């Protein structure tokens, strides 16, 4: 089982208070994750502050651009994988420039990039960046993955799509990894279909065990329908994590956090299916003692999860985040070979 840390690249006001982590602290968090045995750090991707965050906080949030942040961390680490969770191509109009950035990062890091991609949880953010670009974000995501593959693999690349066009592009160097792993984010059946056709991994958000098992079984069927070996697709759901000495303390810490408020904000988008089904947030995430969380992780592993990715630890300060990272590493990671 692999375990990855959710790096607070663009989480102020959503998962964490404002302000939260300075650039040097992000580097320290990543280096500590490598020291503790985490497989990767996973940065999220936002450009503009969401409306609900602006209403709650008087000061603007610091959103660090994820690829530049990961490139800085690459120079300070040696084995830690560098993941996006998730990169939003809808906010980045030039797909050739994006391909060049990703390939460069993979080369400079020695082949440590994991590219998670998704449509984005907040349509308002896309509209703020591109008010006159009429797109279907799901279609654009699929075309982005396909266009990137062409740029990553062909000597001279051309593409004539609905949203992207380029002609006779010789883009070198290619990524060091072949293929560079692309994970598809999202919980709904569309995300599973895209993963089955296009992805090396599936980045679902936290969901209860029975729903996870059902989704993995559906992904297996879709992969086989597309002529793929489903076992080659990494199952890498992202969870919120909150560790404490007993369950009551962990639950209280979780419910008093900015993280809990963020999950409430996703009730009508990313997590709408779970909320509609009456699922409690604690049921779909990793909240409790190390022993309780370890038991839950093993249950997820039994239904096919092989990478607990981008864990978003409940914390109101960087020091509290590091404490959570340490407690989880000692109580869970060290017991999962």
In short:
The protein is an alpha/beta fold. Helices cover 44% and strands 17% of the residues.
Describe this structure in words.
By secondary structure, the chain is an alpha/beta fold. It has a single domain (2-335), classed as Luciferase-like domain (TIM Barrel, Alpha-Beta Barrel), CATH 3.20.20. The chain is 44% helix and 17% strand. It has 14 helices and twelve strands. Helix 7 links the parallel strand 7 (182-185) and strand 8 (201-203). The termini are close together.
Topology:
Elements (H helix, E strand, L loop, with lengths): L1 E6 L15 H14 L3 E4 L7 H6 L9 H11 L4 E7 L7 H14 L4 E5 L5 H7 L7 H17 L3 E4 L4 E5 L12 E4 L3 H10 L2 E3 L5 H17 L8 E2 L2 E6 L3 H9 L2 H8 L6 H5 L4 H4 L1 E3 L1 H13 L4 E7 L4 H14 L6
Parallel strand pairs: 1-2, 1-12, 2-3, 3-4, 4-7, 7-8, 8-9, 10-11, 10-12
Antiparallel strand pairs: 5-6
Helix pairs in contact: 1-3, 1-14, 3-4, 4-6, 7-8
The name of the CATH superfamily reads Luciferase-like domain
Integer count of domains: 1
Number of helical elements: 14
**Mind describing the biggest β-sheet?**
10 strands, parallel
- Quick check: average pLDDT? 94
Principal-axes shape call: globular
Annotated CATH architecture:
Alpha-Beta Barrel
Cα distance, first to last residue? 7 Å
Helical residue percent band: 40-55%
What oligomeric state do the depicted chains represent?
Answer: single chain
Count of β-strands: 12
Beta-strand share of residues = 15-25%
Could you state the order of secondary-structure elements as H and E? EHEHHEHEHHEEEHEHEEHHHHEHEH
Radius of gyration: 19 Å
If you consult CATH, what is the topology? TIM Barrel
Query: What structural category characterises the helix and strand content?
Result: alpha/beta
Report strand order across the widest sheet.
9-8-7-4-3-2-1-12-10-11
In the CATH hierarchy, what is the class?
Alpha Beta
Unreliable parts = none
């Amino acid at each position: 089982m692999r375990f990855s840390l959710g790096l607070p690249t663009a989480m102020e006001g959503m998962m964490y208070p404002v302000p939260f982590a300075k650039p040097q602290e992000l580097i320290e968090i990543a280096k500590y994750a490598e020291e503790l045995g985490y497989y990767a750090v996973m940065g999220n991707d936002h450009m503009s502050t969401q409306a609900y965050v602006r209403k709650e906080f008087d000061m603007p949030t610091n959103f660090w651009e994820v690829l530049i942040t990961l490139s800085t961390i690459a120079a300070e680490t040696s084995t830690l994988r560098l993941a996006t969770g998730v990169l939003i191509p809808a906010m980045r109009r030039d797909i050739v420039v994006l391909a060049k950035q990703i390939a460069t990062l993979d080369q400079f890091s020695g082949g440590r990039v994991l590219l998670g991609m998704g449509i984005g949880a907040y349509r308002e953010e896309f509209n703020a960046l591109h008010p006159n670009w009429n797109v279907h974000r799901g279609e654009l995501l699929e075309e982005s993955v396909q266009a990137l593959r062409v740029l990553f693999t062909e000597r001279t690349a051309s593409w004539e799509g609905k949203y992207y066009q380029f002609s006779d592009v010789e883009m070198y160097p290619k990524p060091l990894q072949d293929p560079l792993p692309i994970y598809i984010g999202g919980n709904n059946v569309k995300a599973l279909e895209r993963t089955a056709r296009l992805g090396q991994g599936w980045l679902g958000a936290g969901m209860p065990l029975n729903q996870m098992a059902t989704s993995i079984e559906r992904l297996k069927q879709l992969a086989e329908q597309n002529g793929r070996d489903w076992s080659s697709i990494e199952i890498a759901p992202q969870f919120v994590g909150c560790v404490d000495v007993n369950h009551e303390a962990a639950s209280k810490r979780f419910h008093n956090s900015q993280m809990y408020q963020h999950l409430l904000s996703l009730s009508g988008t990313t997590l709408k299916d779970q909320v509609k089904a009456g699922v409690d947030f604690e049921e779909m995430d990793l909240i409790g003692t190390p022993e309780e969380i370890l038991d839950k992780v093993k249950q997820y592993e039994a239904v096919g999860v092989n990478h607990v990715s981008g864990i978003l630890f409940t914390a109101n300060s960087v020091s509290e985040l590091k404490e959570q990272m340490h407690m989880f590493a000692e109580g869970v990671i060290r017991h999962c070979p």
